[in-house]
């Protein structure tokens, strides 16, 4: 029968020391600490995101209010423009006649 590689010598006794560890820590304290810090960071980000959402909502309300004011200003300009146009178109001829008449009067 063929001998296994390694010289063919069988150990005479079991080693008295533990084998070297592959990883530096055998407990989960490092992993647990990392997870807890990650949870803390995510909680902080969640709070910041909620604050930003609140600020964006306030700005949206302000922009909505400004857009309503702009529409109202346009409506007022259109109404006054229409009234002014009507007044000028109907009163222009009498005003011109009055002005010309006032120029013809002797002083």
What does this structure look like?
By secondary structure, the chain is an all-alpha fold. 71% of the residues lie in helices and 0% in strands. The chain has 1 helix and no strands. It has one helix at 29-104. The mean pLDDT is 83.
Descriptive labels:
107 residues; mainly alpha
Topology:
Layout: H1 29-104
Describe this structure in a few short sentences.
By secondary structure, this protein is mainly alpha-helical. It has 1 helix and no strands.
Structural class: mainly alpha
What Rg do the Cα atoms give? Answer: 46 Å
What is the CA–CA distance across the termini? 149 Å
**Strand proportion:** under 5%
> Can you write the helix and strand succession as a string?
H
The helicity comes to: over 70%
Q: Which quaternary structure do these chains form?
A: single chain
Which parts are unreliable, with pLDDT below 50 for 5 consecutive residues or more? none
The average pLDDT value, as a whole number, equals 83
> How many H/I helices?
1
Let me know the largest β-sheet. Answer: none
Looking at the structure, what is the overall shape? rod-shaped
**Total number of strands:** 0
